[in-house]
Write a structure and sequence with these properties.
- The chain is of the alpha/beta class and 307 residues long.
- The strands form two sheets. The protein has a six-stranded parallel sheet. Strands 7-8-11-10-9-12 form a six-stranded antiparallel beta barrel.
- A hairpin with a 5-residue loop joins β9 and β10.
- α5 packs across α6 and α7 runs antiparallel to α8.
- 34% of the residues are buried.
């Protein structure tokens, strides 16, 4: 995999343009098709994507929380079959660029000979609406424009915005189906209030590595947790405000991970958390004894799910 962050026309490429947030099954289908076309044409299968979501420039108030940080998106795109990943900075200049100028830039700066356009793709400030319009523009700049078939497989229709909604609703099963794998976030273990330890269930307080990464709905989840030693361990994750034990009014939500049967010093280390199932909503218990009993039940359920 080659990550390209500056002009490079050293290879003849075929590409598809998109944000690819989450690199879900629809994205993978598109990249599979891109690979087929690449092999038949003797071109390098590539994707053109953006460092930040275009809406952060176009309509900042509508910019979504994201499913991946940049690092994980690049890894997933490579695993999906993209040999070259062209990472552009979406800025005001790019926002106001016409489709013809944008395609010309792809051809001249990045050696793109052919462009695969999905059925709902729109490129350029002028937003041409038909594949014939893109073909005409492509012909003018020397790029062969190829329409991609619509994904009709598992979970169709799939979009990153739909997956975000599943996660906001706590529907981990639907998010997993659409992503083709578990929703994942990375985060550094930071110092917390040690409330879990006082109850007999120590937790790692996680600060997500991306400020704009979407956090699933408040609640308790069964999850796989990858620790700094590279081992994938069973865990229970609580997302919320800890209403039974938190005494600070208006406390900010936290992400707390109890790694089952694990002992070790992991402060300032990074954990990878994969959400497998939502066990229950977060709620306030009448006593810490009731909370402890519920945590034991949560751990038992998580163990059963993660077997």
């Amino acid at each position: 995999m080659n990550l390209i962050t500056s002009p490079d026309n050293s290879r003849r490429r075929i590409a598809a343009v998109g944000m690819y947030d989450g690199v879900h099954l629809g994205h993978r289908f598109l990249i599979d098709y891109l690979g087929v076309e690449a092999r038949s044409r003797g071109l390098v299968p590539s994707v053109v994507t953006f460092m930040r979501h275009p809406l952060t420039v176009v309509r900042p108030s509508e910019a979504p929380m994201l499913l991946d940080n940049v690092e994980d998106r690049v890894i997933k795109l490579s695993e999906a079959g993209a040999e070259d990943i062209i990472m552009l900075s979406f800025n005001d200049s790019l926002h106001h660029m016409s489709a013809e100028k944008f395609l010309s830039r792809l051809k001249n700066r990045y050696g793109i000979q052919a462009l695969v356009i999905g059925f709902n793709n729109r490129l350029g400030h002028d937003l041409p609406s038909t594949i014939d319009q893109y073909r005409t523009i492509g012909s003018a700049v020397g790029i062969d424009v190829i329409p991609a078939p619509e994904y009709r497989g598992t979970g169709a229709p799939i979009s990153s915005s739909a997956i975000r909604q599943y996660l906001r609703e706590g529907d981990i099963a639907k998010a997993t189906e659409a992503l083709g794998g578990h929703y994942m976030l990375r985060g550094k273990v930071v110092d917390g209030k040690h409330l879990g330890r006082t109850l007999g269930f120590p937790t790692a307080n996680i600060l997500p590595s991306g400020e704009d990464q979407l956090i699933p709905r408040h609640g308790v989840y069964a999850a796989w947790v990858t620790t700094p030693d590279g081992r994938r361990r069973r865990g229970v994750v609580n997302i919320g405000t800890r209403p039974t034990v938190e005494t600070t009014p208006g406390a900010a939500p936290s992400i707390e991970v109890h790694i089952i049967d694990f002992q070790g010093y992991i402060y300032d280390e990074e954990l990878r958390v994969e959400f497998v199932d939502r066990l229950r909503p977060e709620r306030c218990f009448p006593s810490t004894d009731k909370l402890v009993a519920q945590i034991k039940e949560d751990i038992a359920r998580a163990n059963k799910i993660l077997k």
